[in-house]
Design goal:
Elements lengths: L2 H22 L18 H15 L6 H10 L4 H14 L6 H29 L7 H13 L12 H17 L11 H7 L7 E6 L5 H14 L3 E6 L4 H13 L3 H6 L6 H12 L4 E4 L5 H15 L1 E7 L13 H19 L3 E6 L20 H5 L2 E6 L2 H4 L6 E9 L6 E5 L1
Parallel strand pairs: 1-5, 1-6, 2-3, 2-4, 4-5
Antiparallel strand pairs: 6-7, 7-8
Helix pairs in contact: 1-4, 1-5, 2-3, 3-4, 10-12, 13-14
Length: 421
């Protein structure tokens, strides 16, 4: 197959996916203005997009019925439109990311336009007027490419728009002032941070064995009970190991005894009740993902299908990137940047657990410089919370009190408190 044929086929797939994504999800209507009808190669797709643009301009509902009716009014085949849209919707990939698909479509559109210019230049050179000077010919060719401009969405906003959006956000927070769905369940910590917040990346860091997994697991469970669908990603432990921890804590049965099978028969009544209670919360655990790109894909899918409300990653140093880097510090910087962008894109909080370096053991309390492998963690995170256990607490069995240090809070104070885990 020729490369031009491959380009045309790729255009067909991207065009169909964009149209289907706009029709099947009203949240995607905002992306219509990022495209132009000239970005579409196939005539049928171009017609459908023009109909969608007209419906949006008239502030009408955009769905199969309205598109087919508008098309019929313009003398297009209504049955053909319905069949085409139904085919596109059925062929739509499960893991959908319209922003990525639009970027692909615009990239293919630009390549196609460049190819058309090259073919036109080639034809003109063959039929060139020999009386033209070489500089004139070169200038005409250069002008062809200068006329080809990349459409770019305006990213700047004037102060009027900013103030309107800011006041709306303040009003939204005022109306949700009694909404405790993002409270962590650690009362003293919530007094300092007012819980978690959308579009914020929170790092929870500690040395091994302090209890950061238990701390984050309780937090995730508490928020999931409030109805926020929580995605807990474990790169260190399996689903069953985490399930064991949850049941052990909730039933007050020693997790080591449960793991070894040294429990009493009557314990199964308590275990059954706890398991039934936990099975109903809005939470899932995934121990199979290993890269930040896989997390991005899965998170986008869960946002579409489950209205994802929180991501917890245990823990960041075990996470990889599919991109190639010269050293681990650059890789961690890429991971933290991607996680921060993901919080903004999905409009949810993300918690990433992190290990501290050994320097922490030389002093009593951790500091921001103790974050392992990259200074970008300190920079990208909106909040950094350290967990620190005093020596006398380490010697206790059962419930221990962990010193919870809010070392960075972009929009709040830095303080510390005690919490039991």
């Amino acid at each position: 197959m020729y490369k031009t044929d491959e380009l045309v086929l790729a255009c067909k797939e991207a065009e169909e996916n964009v149209i289907a994504e706009i029709i099947t999800d009203t949240d995607n209507i905002k992306y219509i203005d990022e495209l132009d009808k000239e970005d579409f190669y196939y005539k049928a797709n171009k017609v459908l997009f023009e109909l969608i643009q007209e419906l949006k301009a008239k502030e009408l509902t955009i769905d199969l019925i309205t598109i087919s009716e508008l098309g019929a009014n313009k003398k297009y085949d209504k049955t053909k439109i319905v069949e085409t849209i139904a085919y596109m919707s059925d062929s739509l990939p499960l893991a959908r990311d319209i922003e990525n698909t639009i970027n692909i479509l615009k990239n293919l559109s630009m390549k196609r336009k460049i190819l058309e210019i090259v073919q036109r230049i080639n034809k003109n050179i063959v039929e060139i007027d020999i009386s033209k000077d070489e500089s004139e010919v070169k200038n005409e060719i250069i002008q062809e490419f200068l006329n080809l401009k990349t459409r770019q969405k305006n990213t700047e906003k004037n102060m009027t728009d900013i103030m309107i959006e800011t006041v709306k956000d303040i009003e939204k927070k005022y109306k949700k002032r009694d909404d405790y769905s993002y409270r962590t369940g650690y009362l003293d910590l919530d007094k300092i941070t007012d819980g978690l917040h959308e579009q914020e990346l929170t790092i929870i860091a500690a040395r091994p064995g302090v209890g950061k997994t238990a701390f984050a697991l309780q937090m995730a469970e508490h928020i999931a009970k409030k109805g926020k669908f929580t995605y807990f990603i474990s790169l260190e432990m399996s689903e069953k190991q985490l399930g064991n921890r949850i049941i052990a804590r909730k039933s007050n049965i020693d997790s080591h005894l449960m793991r070894m099978g040294w429990i009493e028969e009557e314990n199964f009544i308590t275990i059954g009740k706890v398991a039934a209670e936990i099975s109903n919360i809005q939470m899932c655990i995934d121990s199979k993902l290993t890269t930040v790109q896989d997390i991005e894909t899965k998170a986008n899918e869960l946002k579409q299908n489950k209205n994802l409300g929180l991501i917890v990653i245990d823990y960041l140093q075990l996470l990889k990137s599919k991109n190639k880097f010269n050293n681990r510090e650059q890789e961690v910087a890429d991971i933290s940047r991607r996680l921060k962008l993901l919080t903004k894109k999905l409009d949810i909080p993300i918690i990433a657990l992190c290990q501290l370096n050994r320097e922490t053991e030389k002093r009593r309390r951790p500091i921001l410089a103790d974050l392992r492998e990259s200074g970008s963690l300190e920079q990208d995170a909106d909040n950094v919370i350290f967990l620190h256990v005093e020596d006398e607490e380490k010697e206790k069995k059962g419930v221990i009190y962990v010193d919870t240090i809010v070392a960075k809070q972009r929009n709040g104070p830095t303080r510390h408190c005690k919490n039991k885990i």
